[in-house]
Amino acid sequence: MFKIKKTLLWIVILMVSMSMIAVFSLAGCKKEEVAAEEEVAEEEVVEEEAAETLTIAVIVPPVENPFFGTMQEIAAAKAEELGYNTIKLVHDDDANKQLEQFETVIAQGVAAIILDNAGADATVAAVQLAKDAGIGCFLVDREITAEGVAISQIISNNYQGATILAEYFAELMGEEGTYVELTGKDTDTNAHIRSQGYHDVLDQIEGMEMVGQQTANWSQDEGYTVMETLLQQNPEIKGVICGNDTMALGAQAALLTAGRDDVICVGFDGSDDAIASIMAGELKATSLQPVAEMAMQAAIQADQWIKTGSTGKPEKQSIDMVLLTPDNANNYKAFAPK
Q1: Does 158-288 match 54-156+291-318 at the fold level?
Q2: Could you give the CA distance from residue 72 to residue 86 in angstroms, rounded to a whole number?
Q3: Both ends of the chain: CA-CA distance in Å?
Q4: Rounded to whole angstroms, how far apart are CA atoms 99 and 102?
Q5: Concatenated DSSP letters of 312-337
Q6: Which one of 2, 233, 238, 330 is least enclosed by Cβ atoms within 10 Å?
Q7: Does the structure show a pLDDT above 70 at 265?
Q8: What is the structure's pLDDT at 53?
Q9: Between these two residues, 51 and 309, which has the higher pLDDT value?
């Protein structure tokens, strides 16, 4: 009898021990499952954080020109609004510096590059370098001489803007008299397109004659000195037509210094400084480039391409310009309607 009880006792002890082992084993498994779930959750958080920290580079010419400064700020702000970090760089219209900047941001692993370039020909190699690295380039304002390399080339309709400005300039001149032209950088396609637009209108008017043409390289300071020289050479001029607002503002300052506020001077871009000059009765007109729209579209299309591999739009996109005169200039600010 005692042996039976002793046997039963050992059976009970054995069963209790096995139950406890099972409980501890289940607890251990549960702990491992929780740990595994926590690890997966941490990985998902890391992936989400990585997705949130993609970077877009915004590279432009000298930001002392409000046209380029505004463009960079608007493009970067839109990219940040869409959830990206941004790198803002200035190439100073130096193609070699631009190439170095491309090499740097490519090495940093940016997701896309928004660019107002440093030369239509010289920029092709840099954009191709980015494409080969799987990084899309979204060009604004200035085109390059190759297609199929950049994802988007979003530009103002420079020719249309030049023709409407030239028509108004001719009207102000009474379609007669002599004038001079200040052109932009020779390496910039836009300089040639604008000049062509001017001459396709003005060369058809028999009473008007261009007596001087010189580059001022988009610069206000050069606009001043070039205007001084041209005025000395051609004191009888009645008008000045410029390839951008900064050159026009420099030329206008030189004219005022010389006491020639009778000379008609027009610009091109639609900057706030030009608008202020127009409203003050100095510059007579400018063509507004839709900088805000171009910059925002570049960021939006970069985001779309990063997420889907396509913008859904053609590479080359052109936006019409608006003629600003004393009648409507005050309705615009920061290259957009107020």
Answers
A1: yes
A2: 10
A3: 105
A4: 5
A5: SS-SEEEE--EEE-TTTGGGEETTEE
A6: 2
A7: yes
A8: 85
A9: 309
In tens, the pLDDT along 248-262 reads 999 999 999 999 999
Provide the residue type at 335 as one letter.
F
CATH superfamily membership of 158-288:
Response regulator (3.40.50.2300)
Domain covering 54-156+291-318, topology: Rossmann fold (3.40.50)
Quote the percentage of the chain above a pLDDT of 90: 84
Cβ atoms of 182 and 214 closer than 8 Å: yes
Cβ-contact 247, 220 below 8 angstroms: yes
**Are residues 150 and 113 in contact, defined by beta-carbon separation less than 8 angstroms?**
no
Q: The tokens 């008299």 sit on which residue?
A: 177
The tally of CA atoms less than 13 A away on the side-chain side of residue 100 is: 9
The pLDDT assigned to 163 comes to 98
Residues 51, 52, 53, 55, CA torsion sign: positive
The whole-angstrom separation of Cα 291 and Cα 185 is 19
pTM over 0.90? The answer is: no
DSSP code for 147:
S
Q: Minimal CA–CA distance to 57: which of 91, 102, 88?
A: 88
**Measured distance CA(101)–CA(239) in Å, rounded:** 41
pLDDT band at residue 336 using 50, 70 and 90 as cut-offs = very high
- Do residues 263 and 238 touch, judged by C-beta distance below 8 A? yes
* Pairing verdict, β 332-333 and 264-266: unpaired
Separation between Cα atoms, residue 146 and residue 236, nearest integer Å: 43
User: Could you state, in order of their start, the residue ranges of all structural domains in the chain?
Assistant: 1-52, 54-156+291-318, 158-288
Backbone dihedral region for residue 56 (phi beyond 0: left; psi -120 to 50: alpha; all else: beta):
beta
pLDDT tens, position by position, 143-178? 999 999 999 999 999 999 999 999 999 999 999 999
CB neighbour list of residue 319: distance below 8 Å, 6 or more residues apart: 154, 155, 156, 157, 290, 293, 294
Q: Which amino acid is present at 92? A: D
- Bridge partner residues of 319 (DSSP): 156
